[in-house]
Amino acid sequence: MKIQLRITLLFTALSAAILLVFMLLIYFFSSQNRTEDFFNTIEAEAVTKVSLLKESGLSPEILQTLYKNNRDQILEVEVAIYNQNFALLYHDDVEVDLVKETDSLLQEIRDKGKVRWKQQELQVSGFVHPVGSQTYLVTAAALDRQGFKNLDNLKNTMAFLGLGGIVFLYLIGRYFSKKSLEPVGELSAEAQKITAKNLHLRLREGPDEIGQLAATFNSMLERLETSFQAQQQFVSYLGHEIQTPLAAIRGDLELTLEKNQSNPEIYHVLESLLADSQTLSKLCGDLIDLAKANYDKSIIQFAKVSMEALILDLVGELLRQQPEAKIHLSFEEKEDEFPQIMANPYLLSIAIKNLLENSLKYSSNGSCQVILRNEEKCLVLQVKDQGIGIPEEDQQRIFEPFYRGKNKGFAKGTGVGLTLVKRIADLHKTSISIDSEIGMGTTVTIRFPIG
Amino acid sequence: MHRILVVEDDERLASVLYKGLIGEGFSVTMATDAEKGFELFQSVKFDLILTDLVLPGEDGIELCKKIRREGPDIPILMLTALGTTDDKLVGFDVGADDYLVKPFDFRELFARIKSLLRRKMAGADSSLQEELRYADLLVHLSQKKVIRSEMEILLTPKEFNLLVFLLRNPEQILSREEIAKEVWGLEFDTGTNFIDVYINYLRKKIDKPFEIQLIQTRPGMGFILQKP
């Protein structure tokens, strides 16, 4: 779930909960007040009736008639009056006796002075009421139609306002979360523009929390840029500062080697020194290439490359280094010419060179075949030899850095070459497949997508 | 005796190069940076320049460009190290005739120097010549431009060298060995079809779009530039 939605929902839920609690409290207290008020009202009504009867001497019949006529229209309280000995003195309507006054009930009224209770929807109050020297026990019962109606109205109004309020709160929450997350979005859009190509760019800093986050990012970028530059500097340092003295060592060794052909002891020592320095420079070169191939994809430049020209230049170069190599080229283009592919020519030639060198190294007669053909939607490059083959358990692992399989005794190597090939193939979004049989030879196939 | 100018800032490598080249019978002049190298180039007539790519101050590419402006036909061999060239040298249009990646085999260095000098000698008799022409095929040597039937054809440096070699020896059968030696400095046995494939590739650019096929195969012998 996105943070914006989460904030919106959380905000809505929290404020809705507060709203709900308030509404429940209002309802609860309103309901309490209504009960209390109504008890007071019916008691006052009953007292009026008692005084009408006992003090003003109004006849009970008139009161009963009034009660019967009025009770359906307005609030009428049914009143019953007893004397101290629980004898009924007056009743508004004996036929519709709402309250069954038993002796124990009247006893309780007399003892406590006032008792209030609810009988279904009716509210009933029984109390002791002195008039002159006489003391009466009075019960009053009525239904608070208006009160319940008001309460009902309140409930409906609150439900309506509550639902509307939640919708309103949700909208406010959405606006609020959008507003508060806007700087984060801006920050991420800015940060997205920074790639390995323009690591010098920085984010806009500011006094608020987001600004501080940007400052944190910036100091991280600073360190990243420094180490990135250090890596590149290291690679070119390795390239120039190590290869130059190595070149001097090799030159000296070669020149001295020629002068000492008559002295076998010195000759053999110099020969193995020369071989060691060659291994060292090969490893150094491979590591530099591997470092370059591990650069971020965004700083590796891709261009349209003619595979034929690349292979031909490469083979020319290789033949110069290994004049005895037997490389057979099969360019099997159809009617139309080979399409160009998008590639980094330097890295691609390193990869193919490594494959060729491997093929020549592990083949029994120093020969290999390079096949180039176009298939539908891809250009297929195959390097084929009739060499010793790669054991099956090694086939999965030969692309791992510094891994050297069972065949390592057969020829020298650094264990970096095929890792490099794999990495370069990955950069070009191609796949390498190996088809090998012990004693029969190995075929490496790379498919380059076209277009 | 051929005079070679060596521009190399690393003292050790410079001294080894000096020793090696003297031993091969060349006359050698040393310079430690591009400015000194360029001064020497202006005052002395050299047959070949060997320069490092990475130099203090101006680098080898700058030096190459400056020298090319004054002497378009002096061979330049450039020493490079992996990782310092930033892929620039793959296209190799900085003006050097050949390059060698450090650390290199001295025998290879000598072979390349000799191949460059031989090519220079071959062109020397026609060095005043600015253009080579056969049928409707025209090559501007200094601009390294190839035009056929008023259409410019883009070639890589190696393809250009191969075509120039064919144009300098028109209507002569050239064996694979001759071509390999002249264009690539290669001494090889016939275990590879490299030259055949390369010639084929050149044909696609030079001959295929046109009616008349100029580069022809003489089975068992080699190739010939000839109108059919």
Automatic annotation (TrEMBL), chain A:
Q: Which Pfam families match?
A: HAMP (PF00672), HATPase_c (PF02518), HisKA (PF00512)
Cellular location of this protein?
A: Membrane
Which superkingdom?
Bacteria
Give the UniProt entry's GO cellular component terms: membrane
Quote the SMART domains the UniProt record gives.
HAMP (SM00304), HATPase_c (SM00387), HisKA (SM00388)
InterPro entries in alphabetical order: HAMP_dom, HATPase_C_sf, HATPase_dom, His_kinase_dom, HisK_dim/P_dom, HisK_dim/P_sf, Sig_transdc_His_kin-like_C, TCS_sensor_his_kinase
Q: What residue ranges carry the coiled-coil annotation? A: none
GO terms (molecular function) for this protein are: phosphorelay sensor kinase activity
Please report the stretch or stretches of sequence annotated as the HAMP domain.
178-229
| Histidine kinase domain mapped to chain residues | 237-451
What keywords were assigned to this record?
A: Kinase, Membrane, Phosphoprotein, Transferase, Transmembrane, Transmembrane helix, Two-component regulatory system
Q: Which Gene3D superfamilies match?
A: 1.10.287.130, 6.10.340.10, Histidine kinase-like ATPase, C-terminal domain (3.30.565.10)
- Can you state which reaction this protein catalyses? ATP + protein L-histidine = ADP + protein N-phospho-L-histidine
SUPFAM superfamilies under this entry?
ATPase domain of HSP90 chaperone/DNA topoisomerase II/histidine kinase, HAMP domain-like, Homodimeric domain of signal transducing histidine kinase
Regions crossing the membrane: 7-29
EC number(s) in its UniProt entry?
2.7.13.3
Q: Under what name is this protein listed?
A: histidine kinase
Q: What is the species of this protein?
A: Algoriphagus alkaliphilus
TrEMBL record, chain B:
Q: What is this protein called?
A: DNA-binding response regulator, OmpR family, contains REC and winged-helix (WHTH) domain
Native source species: Algoriphagus alkaliphilus
Q: Which PANTHER family match?
A: REGULATOR OF RPOS
Check the record and name the InterPro entries matching this protein.
Answer: CheY-like_superfamily, OmpR/PhoB-type_DNA-bd, Sig_transdc_resp-reg_receiver, WalR-like, WH-like_DNA-bd_sf
GO MF annotations in UniProt = phosphorelay response regulator activity; transcription cis-regulatory region binding
Q: Which residues bind DNA?
A: 129-227
Which residues in this protein are found as 4-aspartylphosphate?
52
Q: Where is the Response regulatory domain?
A: 3-117
List, alphabetically, the SMART domains matched: REC, Trans_reg_C
Annotated keywords = DNA-binding, Phosphoprotein, Transcription, Transcription regulation, Two-component regulatory system
Extract one GO cellular component term from the record: protein-DNA complex
All residue ranges annotated as the OmpR/PhoB-type domain in the record: 129-227
Which GO BP annotation is one of this protein's? regulation of DNA-templated transcription
| Transcription regulation listed as a keyword | yes
Superkingdom of the source species: Bacteria
